[in-house]
Amino acid sequence: MTKFKGTGVAIITPFNDDLTIDHKALANLVNYNIDKGTDYIVISGTTGESVTITSEEKKAIIATIVNANKGRVPLVLGIGGNNTAQIINEIENTDFSSIDAVLSVSPYYSKPTQEGIYQHFKAISQVSPVDIILYNVPGRTSSNMSPETTLRLAKDFKNVIAVKEAGNNVHQYLKLLRDKPEDFLVISGDDDLVLGVVLAGGAGVISVIGQALPEQFSKMIRLGLEGKAKEAYKIHFELMEITSLIFSENNPAGIKAVLEALELSKATVRLPLVEATSELKGKIKQALQTIKS
After folding, report:
1. 108: CATH
2. Any domain includes 286
3. Whose CA is closest to 62, among 77, 46, 48?
4. How many domains does the chain have?
5. Which residues are catalytic?
6. Confidence band of 1 (pLDDT split at 50, 70, 90)
7. Is the CB of residue 191 less than 8 Å from the CB of residue 212?
8. Own/partner pairs for 216-220, CB < 8 Å, 24+ apart?
9. Cβ–Cβ < 8 Å for 104, 133
10. pLDDT digits (tens, 9 = 90+) for 264-281
11. Range of the domain at 215
């Protein structure tokens, strides 16, 4: 379970100007993150624009990341949605030889009851050959997976090892941390709250901004895990503005604008998302200059 402690990043899918996948930039981003302290990489999550990626493109993305990684850090694959049967089919037809865990989002749009969410993940647990990280993000799914449901799944299924909690709800984090089984991991999906979560007993983060500033962000998380709050908050305060900016229009347009400013990839996104405005790009460049100085 320690392989998912620390800093994971929800890696983007870089696009060329013609909206094809920029595999060279993707491989470079993997190397950049590993070289600068990222502990594990999450493939094909929301930040990877998974909903506009075809199944063939997803396979190609996995291959590029696996080849670039060369087994250096654990890899987590996003497989989730609101069609339980379809998710099961994808799991049964996926090569997990280089994948350490699945990240699976709570069903969106359908707005199931808590029992429906439980049964959904029970079905996934029963077919998954690798560990499962639950993903609760009410702002995107329009339904909250309650701490009671999360902990019920944690206690009932050995391969449900963690939750990526992204409800931006401090009280919910604390309930999970208070009541969880000892070996169950609470991973923050909120870049702005993660340090407090880690200091309260959380396992770390699956971050968006972390992939652009992996050295600073992973150091902050390591300090938090060591209980060095003062040193960790110094970094947190330095990163507060850029972290806020990347979510001010949409994700991943914001983080892609940061990566473009760092000359790591283009800011291109696929519809229905649109590229960050010139105003936001200007603010991001100023914030980066402040961090560098």
Report:
1. 3.20.20.70
2. no
3. 77
4. 1
5. 135, 164
6. low
7. no
8. 216/291, 217/7, 218/6, 218/7, 218/36, 218/37, 218/38, 218/39, 219/37, 220/195
9. yes
10. 999 999 999 999 999 999
11. 2-225
